From TrEMBL:
InterPro entries xrefs: Ester_Hydrolysis_Enzymes (IPR051532), SGNH_hydro (IPR013830), SGNH_hydro_sf (IPR036514)
Lineage, top ranks: Bacteria, Bacillati, Cyanobacteriota, Cyanophyceae, Leptolyngbyales
Sorted UniProt keywords: Membrane, Transmembrane, Transmembrane helix
Protein name: G-D-S-L family lipolytic protein
Pfam families: Lipase_GDSL_2 (PF13472)
Domain SGNH hydrolase-type esterase: 80-239
Organism of origin: Stenomitos frigidus ULC18
Length: 250
């Protein structure tokens, strides 16, 4: 009898530890305290706020943002703006164009892009290729409608402060849910892209539907392009560059 009780107690402790660990993991994936601050009013009263930019506030985000703020942009530049999907692309080499400047930052969101936009548009660059939003959905738990609203703020600032800049709104790419354990669905991504296309039309900016070119079976990111279900390998970046090359050329 005592052995049975000890076994049950041990099992209970293990299950509780498992559920606690799972809960902590979910909160961290959603953005930690900054995510909870959007859900629990008490935390906001304690002064814990949702962060701008990276929901995890990684040192990498702060360091890269600081570095990019010191690097000059001029009116002849072509800016690639976004999160890690953009950050990891060697765009100047892929497109053989020294005028390109990569302003992607890993884990960034539409909120983060809006926060650092002035450094990018003040010199009135020639073109901006924008892809952003998947981290809003996955890490901040925002709805597609909320993400599009921040997109609209970004585009409004560009239109008002750098009207000659041509903005190319690129669709958010699909994920491979079997490989990526984040909190985002391809259905949500598709909804976001549909709304982004309407927003592009509203501003008369070109919309580039990259999403359709990276789909594999079951309408998800083709496994040949990724090892983790969301980030891209070299073949994928070559394909991406080929698709947008006509828009990059003068």
């Amino acid at each position: 009898m005592n052995q049975t009780i000890q076994t049950l107690l041990g099992l209970s402790v293990c299950l509780n530890a498992l559920f606690i660990s799972l809960g902590v993991w979910i909160i961290l994936k959603r953005g930690g305290l900054s995510y909870l601050a959007t859900r629990v009013p008490l935390l906001r009263k304690l002064g814990i706020k949702s962060t701008q930019g990276s929901p995890f506030n990684f040192p990498y985000y702060d360091h890269r943002k600081s570095q990019l703020s010191l690097l000059p942009v001029n009116a002849s530049n072509i800016i690639f703006l976004g999160d890690s999907i953009t950050d990891e692309g060697e765009w100047a080499e892929l497109l053989n164009n020294p005028a390109i400047r990569n302003r992607g930052i890993s884990s960034d969101t539409t909120i983060g892009v809006l926060d650092r936009l002035q450094d990018i548009i003040a010199p009135r660059p020639q073109k901006i290729f924008l892809m952003i939003g998947v981290n809003d959905l996955s890490n901040l738990g925002r709805s597609p409608a909320d993400v599009v609203q921040t997109h609209k703020e970004i585009l409004t600032q560009i239109r008002e402060q750098s009207p000659q800049t041509n903005v190319f709104i690129q669709s958010v790419l699909p994920i491979h849910p079997s490989l990526f354990l984040g909190f985002v669905t391809n259905s949500n991504i598709q909804t976001l892209n549909e709304q982004l296309q309407r927003l592009a039309n509203e501003f008369s900016y070109p919309y580039i539907n990259l999403h359709a070119h990276f789909l594999g079976a079951h309408h998800q990111l083709d496994a040949q392009y990724t090892s983790d279900g969301i980030h891209l390998n070299g073949i994928a970046y070559q394909r991406w560059a080929k698709l947008i090359e006509p828009h990059v050329l003068p």
